[in-house]
Write a structure and sequence with these properties.
The chain is of the alpha/beta class and 246 residues long. It is 46% helix and 15% strand. It has a single domain, classed as Rossmann fold (3-Layer(aba) Sandwich), CATH 3.40.50. Helix 6 (149-169) links the parallel strand 5 (134-139) and strand 6 (174-181). The protein starts with 6 loop residues before the first strand and ends in an 8-residue tail after the last strand.
């Protein structure tokens, strides 16, 4: 029960990895705000968690919506201690080269996948500072180092945002780290990545299997807990050895 009396917000918590994160935090005592743009999915997850959860509909690309999310967390549970920026456009993502992607789609994609995490931090950090600090985890990806179009660019930028925010928020005892998953067995991955490409990716990995959402839960809980109290500005790969960085 590492997170008893803690309040956590998990964005994109209506399915896949975000759902696993929200449920794991609740299982260890946290009150959890299930922040999700898909109302049906978000309500389902909150109801499955029970009285320790609240659903809040949020568009992470909107300053007004993220501010309302933070306000709802404070109203429901009295404050904010932990923030997990997991929301992203991935399921149903359009696949197009940078030189041809429709410009309005590209801008919306970046507003969600890159700027969304920053907007959520901007909305939450003051409430976190009032509780004496806290911890933030951003969801990156191994795509950040693989030159994979605008998805990879957004994740590479998110790594930079993670490091910059770690410097800015350290004086308030707010730590900021990121997790970079490799190919993970979610409905989104099964929809987006063609089976031959996925098979090729797995064949090149030392641990040649798809990750499961549960494979990521342990590092999330570590990064949010006091066990990592002197750790900030780091991007941690959980990827079966797909990307080995010096």
């Amino acid at each position: 029960m590492r997170f008893r009396d803690k309040v956590a917000i998990v964005t994109g918590a209506g399915q896949g990895i975000g759902e696993a994160y929200a449920k794991a935090l609740a299982a260890e005592g946290a009150c959890v705000v299930v922040a999700e743009v898909n109302e049906a999915q978000g309500r389902r997850v909150a109801e499955e968690i029970g009285t320790a959860a609240r659903f809040v509909r949020v568009d992470v690309a909107s300053p007004e919506s993220t501010q309302a999310m933070a306000g709802a967390a404070v109203e429901a549970f009295g404050g904010i201690d932990l923030l997990v920026n997991n929301a992203a456009i991935y399921h149903g993502m359009q696949l197009a080269p940078l030189i041809a992607v429709e410009w309005e789609y590209y801008k919306r994609f970046m507003d969600v996948n890159m700027h969304g995490a920053l907007l959520c931090v901007r909305a939450c950090w003051e409430a976190m500072s009032k509780r004496g600090g806290g911890a933030i985890v951003n969801q990156s990806s191994t795509a950040a180092w693989m030159g994979i179009g605008y998805y990879g660019i957004a994740k590479l930028a998110l790594n930079g945002i993670t490091q910059s925010l770690a410097r800015e928020l350290g004086p308030w005892n707010i730590r900021v780290n990121a997790i970079a998953p490799g190919p993970t067995d979610t409905e989104a991955t099964r929809t987006i990545v063609p089976p031959p490409i996925l098979k090729q990716l797995l064949a090149q990995m030392p641990l040649s299997r798809l990750g499961q959402p549960e494979d990521l839960v342990g590092i999330l809980l570590f990064l949010l807990s006091d066990a990592s109290a002197w750790m900030t500005g780091q991007v941690v790969n959980v990827d079966g050895g797909q990307v080995m960085r010096p």
